[in-house]
Design brief:
- With 451 residues, the protein is of the alpha/beta class.
- It has three domains: 110 residues, Gyrase A, domain 2, CATH 3.30.1360.120; 131 residues, Four Helix Bundle (Hemerythrin (Met), subunit A) (Up-down Bundle); 162 residues, Rossmann fold, CATH 3.40.50.300.
- Helices cover 44% and strands 17% of the residues.
- It is built from 14 helices and 13 strands.
- α7 runs antiparallel to α12 and α12 packs antiparallel against α13.
- The longest helix is centred in the middle third of the chain and has 30 residues.
- About 4% of the residues have low confidence.
C-alpha cells in the first residue's frame, strides 16, 4: 500500500459535479502539480481551495480541491478530493492527469480496503458501507447504518470479551496452579458461563436470520397451474403490465421478475411457468424451473382458480410447498366457488379477482402479518447482515455446543480450552481480526470503483 491510488468516486455521466479521489503518501504533491491556485503542500488539513486543473498551462476545468492529511481521513492516508464539473470529458481528463503525474488507478473497493487494513474500520463496517451504497429501502439503510456506526461490531466484541475473560481464568489455573487468589476454574464452573454465551449468541443468530429480509428482501415465488391468474397477480402487485396475460394456457414459459416495497422491505417477485404435465420440451423446462424455485423462496404465493375443483396437480404443488411460508390466493372470486377452505392445507387464504383488482391490498396485508413487517419500526436493526457473518456466528455456536458436550463427558479443562479459543477466533473472523488475503480480495472486489 505504498503507492498512491486515484479513481472517480461519483457515478460517471452528466451531472453538476464529479469527484476524483486520490489517496496515498503522494496524494497532495501529485494534485499540486496540476492545480493552479494555492500551494497545496502548504495549506492546513481539512480545507477546501478554489482554482483550476491545468495541463501544463492549458486550463482543463474550474475546481474545488479538498486536502485531508493522515491520520484523520477515511483511509488513514493523505487524501485529496477534486470536485470538478460533472461532464464525462472533464472528469476523465482530470483523472487522466492525476494518473499521468504518478497515481495508480484504484481497484474496485480499494479505498475501503485500505481503511480496513489501516485499522480505520473493521470488516463488518466495511460490508455495511457496501450495503449502504446499494440500499434500496429505508430498512436497508437503517441496518447498514447500524453496522457502519459500530453497533454490530460492539455486539460481537462484547461476546469475544466474555470468552476472553473465561480463557484468561482457565490459563491462570493451568499455568500458575500455585496462585492462591485465582478462582479454580473447573468444568463445573465453566459450563454456566458457556451456557450464558450460547444463549446470547443464539439470540443474535435468530434475530439476524429474521433480519435478513431487511437487507435481502423477501424472495417471493408465484406458483400454480396454467391460466389461474399468476401473471395477473404479478401485474397488479407491480401496478404495471409486466407479464403478458392471455386466456391461452402456457403463455408464461419462463420466469418474470419484479420488485415492490412493503413497509420498507423489498418484495422480490418471481412469476413462474404454470406447473402441469406436458410433452412440450420448452414448457417442461419452465415447469422444472418453477419447481426448483419453491425451496429457495422465503414466501410462496400459490394461486388457485376457485371456479375449478382441486386437481392432482394442485395437490402435487401443495406437497412441494410443505415447510414454506405459503399464502393461497383463490383467484376469480367473481365466479362460482368450487373449492372449500377446509380442503386446503394452509390457513393463509386470500380471495382475489384480478378483473376488478380486488384482494391485492388484503394480500399485501397478509404478507406484512406473516413477516411481522409492522413491527420493524420498533426493532433496533443491530443484525449480522450477511451470510458470511451469520455463518461464522453459527460455526462459533456449534463449537461452543461441542464444549458443553465435552464438559458432560468430563473432558479435562485444558482440552476444553482449545475449543473455547476456536469459538473466540471464529467470532474474530466476523470483525476481520483474522482473515485470508483471498477473502479480503474477494470481498472488496464487490465494491464500486472509487469507494
Amino acid at each position: 500500500m505504498n503507492d498512491t491510488i486515484a479513481a472517480i468516486s461519483t457515478a460517471l455521466g452528466v451531472g453538476a459535479i464529479s469527484i476524483i479521489r486520490v489517496s496515498g503518501d503522494s496524494a497532495v504533491s501529485i494534485v499540486n502539480k496540476i492545480f493552479k491556485g494555492k500551494n497545496l503542500e502548504e495549506v492546513p488539513s481539512h480545507t477546501i481551495h478554489y482554482g483550476q486543473i491545468v495541463d501544463h498551462d492549458t486550463p482543463i476545468d474550474e475546481v474545488l480541491v479538498t486536502v485531508m492529511r493522515s491520520p484523520k481521513t477515511f483511509t488513514r492516508e493523505d487524501i485529496v478530493e477534486i470536485n470538478c464539473h460533472g461532464g464525462i470529458a472533464p472528469t476523465n481528463k482530470v483523472l487522466e492527469l492525476v494518473l499521468k503525474n504518478g497515481a495508480r488507478l484504484a481497484e474496485a473497493g480499494e479505498f475501503t480496503k485500505r481503511a480496513f487494513l489501516n485499522g480505520r474500520i473493521d470488516l463488518t463496517q466495511a460490508e455495511s458501507i457496501m450495503d449502504l451504497i446499494s440500499s434500496k429501502t429505508e430498512s436497508n439503510r437503517k441496518v447498514a447504518m447500524k453496522g457502519l456506526t459500530g453497533h454490530v461490531s460492539n455486539m460481537i466484541r462484547s461476546l469475544r470479551q466474555k470468552i476472553l475473560e473465561l480463557l484468561a481464568s482457565i490459563e491462570v489455573n493451568i499455568d500458575y496452579p500455585e496462585y492462591e487468589d485465582a478462582v479454580v476454574m473447573t468444568t463445573e464452573k465453566v459450563a454456566p458461563e458457556i451456557k450464558k454465551i450460547l444463549n446470547e449468541l443464539n439470540h443474535i443468530i435468530q434475530e439476524s436470520e429474521n433480519g435478513k429480509i431487511l437487507t435481502s428482501g423477501i424472495k417471493t415465488v408465484i406458483v400454480g397451474k396454467p391460466n389461474v391468474g399468476k401473471s395477473s397477480i404479478l401485474n397488479r402487485l407491480l401496478d404495471e403490465d409486466k407479464a403478458i396475460v392471455t386466456s391461452i394456457e402456457g403463455t408464461t414459459r419462463d420466469i418474470i421478475e419484479g420488485n415492490i416495497t412493503i413497509n420498507g422491505v423489498a418484495l422480490n417477485l418471481i412469476d413462474t411457468a404454470g406447473i402441469h404435465e406436458t410433452e412440450d420440451i420448452i414448457e417442461k423446462i419452465g415447469v422444472d424451473k418453477s419447481l426448483q424455485l419453491i425451496p429457495e423462496a422465503d414466501l410462496v404465493i400459490l394461486v388457485l382458480n376457485q371456479n375449478e375443483k382441486l386437481s392432482d396437480e394442485d395437490r402435487r404443488i401443495f406437497s412441494v410447498c410443505d415447510n414454506k411460508k405459503t399464502i393461497i390466493v383463490l383467484n376469480k372470486s367473481d365466479l362460482e366457488k368450487r373449492i372449500e377452505e377446509d380442503q386446503l392445507p394452509y390457513s393463509n387464504i386470500i380471495y382475489t379477482n384480478t378483473v376488478e383488482d380486488t384482494g391485492i391490498e388484503p394480500l399485501k396485508n397478509k404478507i406484512c402479518e406473516l413477516f411481522h413487517l409492522e413491527q420493524l419500526d420498533q426493532q433496533d436493526f443491530s443484525y449480522l447482515n450477511n451470510i458470511r457473518q451469520i455463518s461464522l456466528a453459527k460455526e462459533a455456536y456449534s463449537i461452543l455446543e461441542e464444549v458443553m458436550d465435552g464438559i458432560q463427558q468430563e473432558i479435562p479443562i485444558d482440552m476444553i480450552e482449545i475449543d473455547i479459543k476456536r469459538a473466540w477466533e471464529k467470532l474474530g473472523e466476523i470483525l476481520g481480526e483474522s482473515y485470508s488475503e483471498e477473502l479480503i480480495d474477494q470481498l472488496f472486489s464487490q465494491f464500486c470503483l472509487g469507494k
